Amino acid sequence: MADDLEALVQKLLKRVETLEAELVLAQEQLAAAKREIARKDQIIAALQQRLFGSKSERYHPDQEELDFGEDVLGKFEPSSSNQGNGEDTAGGKRAGSPKRLRKLAKLAGEPCFVHDLTLLGMGDDGHTASLFPGTTALGENERWVIENHVPQLDTWRITFTYPLIAASREVLFLVNGANKHPRAKEVLTGDPAFPASAITAGKVWWMIGG
């Protein structure tokens, strides 16, 4: 009888030790979560101040070193490999934009960065974003933001690719001008000759005026 009681006591003591260890771990995780929430709150407050010029009551002067761009997206480091060959703008942006978007997606736990709303226009030639007819960006399925050479304009452009746009919850096309009405009709029928026809998303809306 005494042995059984002793065994029960030991079992209870071990259970108490396990529960105490789990409690300590939970407290540490809670503290870490609170620190992360406070950190991200400061980032949002700093971004609010930068964009709108209004200082949030949550923004603490002693944490001015928190910078949305650098803290969340990382420092922008322009590429020097394309300097002087007409691709400096595209090459420089290429080095930073994809990494920044992927870092944001990782923070949000998303396989691809998800825009709540992507606003797009449409050109007379049926292009959208900088996805022009006959350009290499139309066939890009892996990268989200790339440099795209546009021969018809003799220039380089930075553009979202189809996969990034397709990840948007909603896309809104804003098309103005009566001269674009016939082209918009062709795009809406799904004519593959026009890049805007291939746009997909959670929902796609069109506002056509002029």
Architecture overview:
- Residues 63-95 have low confidence and may be disordered.
- This protein folds into two domains: 2-63; 114-209, Rossmann fold.
- The termini are far apart.
- The protein has helices at residues 2-52, 68-73, 88-108, 162-166, 181-188; strands at 117-120, 145-150, 155-160, 170-176, 203-209.
- The chain is 43% helix and 14% strand.
- Helix 5 links the parallel strand 4 (170-176) and strand 5.
- The strands form two sheets. The protein has a three-stranded parallel sheet, with no helix packed on it. It has a two-stranded antiparallel sheet with strand order 2-3.
- The protein is α/β, with parallel strands linked by helices and 210 residues long.
Q: Descriptors for this entry?
A:
Rossmann fold; 3-stranded parallel beta sheet; elongated
Question: Mean pLDDT, as a whole number?
Answer: 79
Order of helices and strands: HHHEEEHEHE
**Head-to-tail CA distance between termini:** 94 Å
Number of helices: 5
Number of strands: 5
Shape: elongated
Can you tell me the CATH class of the largest domain? Alpha Beta
Report the β-strand fraction as a percent range. 5-15%
Number of spatially distinct domains? 2
Helix content: 40-55%
Summing up helix and strand content along with how strands pair, one would put the structural category as alpha/beta
Order of adjacent strands in the largest pleated sheet:
1-4-5
The parts where pLDDT drops under 50 for at least 5 residues are 63-95
Architecture per CATH nomenclature, i.e. the level-2 architecture of the largest domain: 3-Layer(aba) Sandwich
CATH topology of the largest domain: Rossmann fold
